[in-house]
Write a structure and sequence with these properties.
Length: 99
């Protein structure tokens, strides 16, 4: 994997034994809001505080697509990703976006 663009908020996470790039882009944010059925940052923040496993998968897939990992996002349902590593990767991407 080539270097990360920290200014863009890209992060690297190991998911199911593979190194992946994640990024909270505007497109990823819109995808997350649409898929979770929320509108606006406040509603999204409330929903993120109590994610189900399905919600976590939606968010992780959007962040993978934002990082240019569309193929990994599409195959996420079959990937051996542990919930703890998925949650850590999502948190890492949101922290990087806020920096």
């Amino acid at each position: 994997m080539s270097g990360l663009n920290g200014v863009r908020g890209e992060v690297r996470a190991t998911l199911g034994g593979a190194e992946r790039r994640l990024c909270l882009t505007l497109g990823a944010l819109a995808e997350i809001e649409t898929e979770l059925g929320v509108a606006g940052v406040e509603a999204l923040a409330a929903r993120l505080r109590a994610l189900s496993a399905a919600d976590l998968s939606v968010v992780l897939a959007a962040l993978l697509r934002g990082g240019g990992e569309g193929e990994a996002a599409d195959a996420l349902a079959q990937a051996p990703v542990m919930p703890a590593e998925a949650a850590a990767a999502v948190a890492q991407a949101f922290v990087a976006a806020a920096a």
